[in-house]
Amino acid sequence: MISRAEQTLFSDWLWTVDRWLLGALALLMVCGLVFGMAGSPPVAERLHLPTFYFVNKQAEFLVPAIAVLVAASFLSPRHVRRVALAVFVVAMALIVAALLFGVEVKGARRWIFGIQPSEFVKPAFVILAAWAFSEGARGRRDMPANFMAILLLPATVVPLVLQPDFGQTMLISLVWGALFFMAGLHWFWVAGIGGAGASAVFAAYKFVPHVRARILKFLEPQSDGGAVTDTFQVDTARDSFIAGGWFGKGPGEGTLKRILPDSHTDFIFAVTGEEFGVIVCIALVSLFAFIVIRGLTDAARNEDPFCRFAAAGLSMLFGIQSCINLAVNLRLMPAKGMTLPFISYGGSSLISLALGMGFLIAVTRKRPRTEVLLDAALDPGAARA
């Protein structure tokens, strides 16, 4: 045991972090390895790789992910903003580079140097948007904070649309809209943003062929202009839950995962349903819900405007991404290619999520009043507030 009286960096961190949130994230990472052992072997065998290739790779990715999460959780709010700005600039530069020189996969240029930079844009974007909205809420007159927050959205999503990556675009836009609403701006602007979002969806449906195909597959599974559409993945995912029932077939006993192409990434929740059953799926969803509710509760209790906006935004980012993946697995919305946080296989996704959760733990840490005042003194806008 470490005494509360000890004045070391680690002891201060241990007694100020939300240990329930940290424990839930650790449990989620362990679940990712367990469910990865169920969903990834068939994919590895189809690719003529060792049976547990993806499980071993996921375990390797967990090492830097945990290091990133812990390191980010030690940051002060001021340093969180600085790190987020650096990550955002580098990630956006890599997105532009991917558009010009990246490898095209399934009709999109999202990868360069073996990473997907759009994954790292998400937590950095939320921090920057939270900072801009919090400054606007403080009423700073020496900087156009609200204008900067509004400008940040198109500056981020336009390169994502050019990739194209409509899933990440939708996710970022939803979180930004939620922060916009939290900032207390006029309902006229909220309605205008909603209309702009609906117009963007219609334009994507009208002018982007693969978006139109996905929507048609979802609305009319048996027809697409007279042709039979390919709904194999979503149909197989749905059948996995039916086959698993309440208690599942047992670890390693699933059969539908052998014909499900993305059983280790986008549809790992369906594999979980077949092998572990609906009860385990409900428990997993409850774990996601606990993390989101815990983050939002910590945000509501925080007196610092930036920390409040950042914690709420990061919690919503985590929750909305989870909901999108779960909805696709349950055939409640068209496929988006969105990973299930800490469960789906993927190095870029895992490390970026760890960075986002590290930021969340950092901005929700209990800080002494003197530290809050010092941070305010170093931030002119906060000092005036």
Brief write-up:
The protein is mainly alpha-helical and 385 residues long. It contains 16 helices and two strands.
The end-to-end distance, rounded to whole angstroms, is 40 Å
- Please describe the biggest sheet, giving its number of strands, its sense, and whether it closes into a barrel: 2 strands, antiparallel
Q: Could you list the spans in which at least 5 consecutive residues all have pLDDT below 50?
A: 223-229, 380-385
Structurally, how many domains make up the residues? 1
Order of helices and strands: HHHHHEEHHHHHHHHHHH
Rounded to an integer in angstroms, the radius of gyration calculated over CA atoms is 22 Å
Shape: globular
Class from secondary-structure proportions: mainly alpha
